[in-house]
Amino acid sequence: QHYYITNNLRMSGVGIAFGNSSAFVSVCRDGRSEIVANSAGDRSTATVVAHQEGELLTGTPAVQMTVRQPANTVSSLKSLLACKLESVDSASQACKLEQHGEEIIVNFNNATRKGVSALVKCVFENLKETADSALGEDKHDTVISIPLTSSPEFKKTVKNCAISAGLNVLDLIPESVAALLSLDSAAKPADGHTAVVRVGGSSMAVTVVKVVAGMYSVVDSTEEKIGGNLFDRSVGKFLCDDFNRKNRCKVEENPRSYSKVLKASKSAKHNLSTLNTAECNIESLFDGMDLISNLSRPRFETLIQNDLNKIKETVQKMVTKHSSISITRVVLTGGTCKVPKVQSIISQLFPESSIVSQAPDEIISLGAATHAGMLSKFPNLSTKSEVEGNGTVGIPLTPSNIEVRVGDVVTQAVAKNTPLPYKTDIELPEGNVIVIEADGKCIAKAEVAGSDDKSKVSLHFEILEDCSIEAIIKDSFTNERTAVHIPPPKGA
Questions:
Q1: Predicted TM-score (pTM) of this structure
Q2: SS3 of the chain: helix, strand, coil, percent, to 5
Q3: Are the beta carbons of 484 and 441 closer than 8 angstroms?
Q4: What is the pLDDT of residues 324-367, one digit of tens each?
């Protein structure tokens, strides 16, 4: 699969990272992407939906309902949208699920039944409101990130849900590629291989990407159902066992109490990403009894050791499989990559690579917004990759090698398949006649009058999106300029 990057564009668009646990919204304005906070002031929005008194709640209000009425809430919507009921992890859902044809139906309190696609639409409506408030308008060119291994059916469903929520979807982009676009949009990336390691709330993926002349080619990718939810359960088990031992009960058998424990475990995990200790205090957890516990980072890392080993094994398999490839850069994405021990494990597996771990939970959304800005710059291009699965984004490329000949000296100006638009400046050797060639054939010729030993001739070269060429030949000694316009080749 191939993706191309174009730099320095004044563009705008919206990027959405639609995850299993949370979603992020970014906007791209004047070529710069930034995360947008939701109405609650949070940079992320929980992808949880709850049903209360005939109304569907999303985001923070829905998260609060997971404790009050866990049977009336549903999470992991992205996974539910992509699978059958028999493959659903029953431990992750307190609500009642049913299979109806090709879609999973959520039965809220045995009274209201909603299809997963309708619930995903509600999430996108919430995310659209966030984008509306940031841009001051309700029409947005949008790109949504999805797993690289997504099926055509899943891609089509996600796109339809977003469109029905009022979003103008330009494209669906793989999460790994979106992360790279976020990093490389300011300057053309160096050629080489990059490993993108994503560890999210309930899944992880390792993708090897080859970068050549601004083109991203996915070499290989693997995905496993391993994520931060395993950390939550491991810490939750420790808290439940400790509480049960002190109070002689089985708190995990009470759905509401166990939801409180998991919420506290998740909060402790987030706090321990930046702090050395975290408090896990829950008032009236069970029969009026409180849970009071302190968790240190070393203790936390001991509790999740088995889960860390699963992450390590998944990454190690990809490293071993491609041992002949020199991976120069490793990019960490996903909220679970904020855990210091996860970063340490991955760094040990790539001792000679540079590790990029800046804002791992936000980087995918930022890249999706950058991609939306790129595509909005080229409104006439086809972007069918999200349905057809061919993985190619329609950024125009140079159809041939462009060279400049002065006498017997040939200088390459632009290589074939360079993303457009493209600008460059070339210092030329002495000579009166300058010939511009495409794959060895003359496409333009210009003469520089009065060239002598003191002259320094330079060429400002610009290829536009339609493959037309604007060139300016300048003699620095005489300050004379010669403009050359070359129309686009036939069929370009």
A1: 0.77
A2: 35, 35, 30
A3: no
A4: 999 999 999 999 999 999 999 999 999 999 999 989 999 999 99
